[in-house]
Write a structure and sequence with these properties.
By secondary structure, the protein is α+β, with helices and mostly antiparallel strands. Helices cover 49% and strands 12% of the residues. The protein has a domain of 97 residues: VSR Endonuclease (Endonuclease, Chain A, 3-Layer(aba) Sandwich). It has a 4-stranded mixed beta sheet with strand order 1-2-3-4, sandwiched between helices. A hairpin with a 4-residue loop joins β2 and β3. The protein is globular and about 55 Å long.
Amino acid sequence: MTDVYDAQKRSAVMARVKGRNTTPERKVRKILTGLGAHYRLHRKDLPGRPDIVMAGRRLAIFVHGCFWHGHDCARGARTPKTNRDYWTAKVAGNRARDGRAAESLIAAGWRVETLWECAIRDEAALKIRLANLLSAQPPAKG
């Protein structure tokens, strides 16, 4: 099956896909702020550039879109009908990169939490999960 858009239009559509300050990410930040948490965004000096970083708590939070990072929910398991090989390789590469970043952070003594787009929709459950993360003790430095 061929693409419904020509190459120029497809390029314009894909260029509009955001990687930062997405709606799920903003929702998580709003809840964290309400819980009194202090954080930094997209720290370049950490593996994987976590979306939200709480250095004092040694906590790195990744907010992942289900499709782009291959979650096992209905939205993440969907594969586009066009250019299937490309998308399968793209998502597999994203998952591998995410795994390497998480392993590096854990090896450096960080707690890593991944919040999936589908789980963020339940705001009450998300608030409880984030409150539990904030109340947990950070790992010992060293």
